[in-house]
Amino acid sequence: MTETSSSTPCPPDKIVFDEERGEFICSETGEVIEDRIVDQGPEWRAFTSEEKEKRSRVGGPLNDTIHDRGLSTIIDWRDKDAMGRTISPKRRLDVLRWRKWQIRARIQSSADRNLAQAMNELERISNLLNIPKNVRDEAAKIYRKAVEKGLVRGRSIESVVAASIYAACRRTKMARTLDEIAQYTKANRKEIARCYRLLIKELDVTVPVSDPRDYVGRIASLLNLSGQTIRDAIEIIERARQRGLTAGKDPAGLAAAALYIAAVKNGEKRTQKEIAQVAGVTEVTVRNRYKELINELKLDVPLT
DNA sequence: AAGACGAAAGTGGTTGA
DNA sequence: TCAACAACTTTCGTCTT
Q1: For A81-90, what is each residue's pLDDT tens digit?
Q2: Which of A1, A55, A66, A299 has the most CB atoms around its CB within 10 Å?
Q3: Which strands, in side-by-side order, build the sheet including A32-34?
Q4: Is the pTM of this model over 0.70?
């Protein structure tokens, strides 16, 4: 409710570019100035380069929902031509062949349509979340695998796409929470989570265990914290891990707490609220982690 | 007035029968 | 499928700066 009011515009000299997320943010308030940098590339380049053979699908309107558009001329099974004359045996073979191809083409186009819609969706979500191209490609690859395995049947394309994106993010260590992705999707978080689990189980997509350190960079850059603070935070997390404090804990919360401590230590104090906000956890969680870290690691935090 | 702290009750997800 | 459980959130009162 009482959010950083957009009625007070961020002074131009406070605007910084956050290269982690591809966003322009205000260094004062953290307000996102421009978070939609439109990908100006042609839409059909969304397909991965290794799929050369699939390029038959060049540039068809992606939102064309009419089934079999352009292929709706059905080749009749009767051995008559358009004038009602019987076709010669030689022509009959041709006709049979045409029909065979028509059926093949239809199957092909059905898979393509699914893919086309999915890629469209992928592009949309990726743009909203500023997901870099390599991660998109990864997501596309995963999705394609899912289609081949028939995992999409019975599920919404959108949720499987979202799950693919999430998986790709995890694989490439582009820390994005499930919530962030779910936010731009009609499918709910639960559904996406289920698809995600299915994906990593069925396709053998290996996903490294989510690491708090991956969150550190992103949170820090959103808050304009120094490299030294980041290094300190990572060291704190490392020590916490050795002590077994990290198991079962929300990595974002842990990263937030470590950064909080590191920031205070380096005289770059941010409020718990600020950190919690960008980390996507609550103040309380930051506090709990922070308390644990201080106690267990015997860190002394100089106050003020 | 704003931030930090912590208690208590509530919520959503995981696990094991 | 259900209940127990841990982690996290929400809410709120109190203390500190």
Answers
A1: 666 667 676 7
A2: A299
A3: A15-18, A23-26, A32-34
A4: no
